[in-house]
Design brief:
The complex is a heterodimer.
Chain A (H helix, E strand, L loop, with lengths): L5 E3 L2 E3 L3 E3 L20 E2 L16 E4 L2 E4 L7 H13 L6 E5 L4 H10 L7 E5 L3 E2 L5 E2 L4 H14 L4 E4 L7 H10 L4 E4 L3 E3 L2 E2 L4 E2 L6 E4 L4 H14 L4 E4 L5 H10 L3 E4 L1 H5 L3 H15 L20 H6 L3
Parallel strand pairs in A: 3-18, 4-7, 7-8, 8-11, 11-12, 12-17, 17-18
Antiparallel strand pairs in A: 1-2, 5-6, 6-16, 9-10, 13-16, 14-15
Chain B lengths: L1 H9 L9 E12 L4 E7 L12 E4 L13 E4 L2 E3 L4 E7 L3 H6 L7 E8 L11 E7 L2 H14 L3 E8 L8 H6 L3 E6 L7 H14 L4 E5 L2 H14 L2 E5 L15 E6 L2 E6 L6 E3 L7
Parallel strand pairs in B: 8-9, 8-11, 9-10, 11-12
Antiparallel strand pairs in B: 1-2, 1-7, 2-6, 3-4, 3-7, 5-6, 12-15, 13-14
């Protein structure tokens, strides 16, 4: 019997494939049965209604896209009265992604979304933080600690901290989140980027800058998922540029316990369905009965070129 | 794998599947004039329960010359469920449409759709006036066909740069549409002349509803005429898209709805909107 299930800090998922926040909504139910995937992660909501950034909000670059959507949100009321009931018709657990401009507002929203029907809360601490001069909480260990401490007090639900790839201190940030009581880490969000139209000389995004996502991001976020998985004892959820089975396996081998698929769903909305099937097929073919045989199995102690040199007779 | 895929393909008992990610096969892909191409594909029957005004999101082929990454939304020019045909009329404008021109007969084109909300015709809208410029007619062609099948009287004012650039006028005439062609080269397509032709239609023939798409100039003019003469209408709008399903929220535009200005997704709440709700921008 193949076991695709995975336990993320107390939350059991039928399989490790789930959507990345912002690339998933009720609308995808038009294309496939949403119970095929391991969990449902909502687009980040804020307490208040927000209209989001000016258009253009998206542009493409080679092998990737940039977005500056700006977290348009219908607010907490709509979330509780519409989003939660919609997803409660499914077996897959619902993960509410939330954000706020200050730690106190964040904690208040966290408390408000801790309702029946919400299985876990993903805290998007990698979005701009007004209190910290436009920087995200997850840029530094001490701001991460501060906000996570307050969030931890606000809920008993499993807390997933979504980290930023824009920091040079990802391991320290990961440890700070764990120390403050995060149950899992999502590694990572989009990478701050820019594109300019050379004819008009205008930035291609209405917000000037935006987040890079897609295959081009993968080696960077994979490296971070690896570093975080080495450093912490809580589960790491890999996120960044995942589109194929090989991408999923790479993250799992690096130490991620599950993965989030984002931009690939925009290109091909059936991606997650295919990945669940292909992962199952891969395990069957390779006589792997449990995901635990894959997770963290990276042979980094043998990563030097010594064996290769021996093979070629040096 | 089979079980999961089958489960996914059948959908959840409480939510019917309406959009399909499937491969289609190119039957032909030829230029119709200097700027426009007509692409005809063979498509599975289940994706052809379309409404005029809906669109598909196309995965354009990557080549040495073009490397589009995101899909490209394309309104439906024609669909025939019986013959399993789907067609698109497109203007070669950038990376995505440039890539499309490379498709040869027999090539596979993955599509996602049908997507969005299309045009509707109220029961008491018997005399329809279609106003379109350039490739905008592509979106309105299936509407004209449907309206004629419903026995409605249809007049189409088609505007283009030149006689050579006029699209689909023969097709419209075959459908029994009264076609009025205006061109820049003949000096007949200016706003003032267009307006007086529309007003003449209203006075002499009567108009129950306006249908248009794309152009802000046409939208603004029709809104003015709509207010003045109390004629309702619908408009299909364009906006840069990514997912086409409503998840990414990239294709929003401002609309007047229920007394306030709201941001709506062109892909999901549209692409066809009430004429008076749209805000020209």
């Amino acid at each position: 019997m193949l076991d695709l299930s995975v336990n993320l800090g107390g939350l059991q998922l039928a399989n490790p494939i789930m959507p990345a926040s912002g690339t998933f909504s009720e609308d995808l139910a038009d294309v496939f049965d949403l119970d095929v995937i391991g969990a449902h992660v909502t687009k980040t909501i804020t307490r208040e209604k927000r209209s989001g950034n000016p258009t253009p909000r998206v542009c493409e670059v080679k092998g990737a896209m940039l977005n500056a959507i700006g977290i348009p949100s219908k607010g907490i009321e709509h979330f509780l009265t519409h989003t939660v009931p919609f997803f409660n018709r499914y077996q897959a657990p619902l993960v509410a992604s939330i954000s706020a401009p200050s730690a106190d507002e964040f904690a208040r929203l966290c408390e408000e979304v801790s309702v029946e029907g919400v299985a876990a809360i993903e805290v998007n601490i990698s979005c701009p933080n007004i209190e910290e001069d436009g920087k995200a909480f997850a840029m530094r260990p001490h701001t991460t600690s501060n906000v996570l401490n307050k969030l931890r007090q606000a809920t008993d639900k499993p807390l997933w901290a979504k980290l930023s790839p824009n920091t040079g201190e990802v391991t320290e940030v990961a440890l700070a989140a764990q120390e403050a009581g995060a149950d899992a880490l999502v590694v990572a969000n989009t990478l701050l980027a820019m594109a300019i139209d050379i004819r008009s000389r205008k930035p291609k995004l209405g917000n000037l800058m935006g987040g890079l996502s897609g295959p081009a991001l993968k080696p960077i976020t994979l490296r971070m998922a690896y570093q975080c998985a080495k450093a912490v004892s809580i589960p790491v959820i890999g996120c960044g540029g995942i589109a194929t089975l090989d991408d999923v396996l790479e993250y799992l081998i690096a130490g991620a316990s599950a993965v989030q698929v984002g931009t690939a769903t925009f290109i091909s909305p059936m991606t997650m369905v295919h990945l669940v099937g292909e992962l199952q097929e891969y395990m069957r073919t390779n006589n792997i009965t449990s995901l635990s045989e894959i997770i963290g199995s990276v042979r980094d102690d043998e990563a030097s070129d010594k064996p290769v040199m021996q093979e070629i007779g040096q | 794998m089979q079980k999961k895929t089958l489960q996914a393909a059948l959908g959840h008992p409480e939510t019917a599947l309406t959009a399909f990610e499937v491969p289609t096969t190119v039957l032909s892909n030829k230029p119709v004039n200097a700027e426009y191409h007509l692409l005809v594909v063979s498509a599975p029957e289940e994706i052809l329960a379309c409404t005029p005004g809906q669109f598909f999101n196309l995965l354009c082929p990557v080549s040495d010359a073009h490397s589009p990454y995101l899909r490209r939304p394309m309104s439906i020019y024609g669909f025939d469920r019986h013959k399993r045909r789907l067609s698109f009329l497109y203007k070669v404008a950038g990376e995505g449409t440039g890539a499309l021109t490379a498709l040869k007969r027999g090539a596979i084109l993955p599509v996602l759709g049908p997507l969005g909300h299309g045009y509707s015709i109220k029961d008491d809208w018997q005399k329809l006036l279609i106003v379109a410029r350039g490739v905008g007619l592509a979106t309105l062609a299936p509407l004209a066909q449907y309206a004629r099948q419903q026995g409605r009287q249809v007049t189409a004012i088609c505007s283009a740069r030149s006689q050579a650039a006029l699209l689909s006028t023969d097709y419209f005439r075959q459908l029994g549409v009264n076609v009025i062609a205006l061109t820049d080269e003949d000096g007949t397509s200016d706003t003032q002349n267009l307006r007086s032709i529309i007003e003449k239609q209203i006075a002499e023939n009567g108009v129950d509803a306006f249908y248009t798409c794309g152009s802000n100039r046409l939208l603004a003019m029709l809104q003015e005429l709509s207010r003045h003469y109390g004629i309702e209408g619908q408009v299909a709008l364009e906006q840069q898209m990514a997912c086409g399903l409503g998840m990414c929220q990239c294709c929003v535009r401002p609309f007047n709805r229920d007394g306030e200005q709201v941001q709506l997704r062109v892909c999901r709440e549209g692409p066809v909107f009430d004429l008076m709700e749209a805000i020209p921008c």
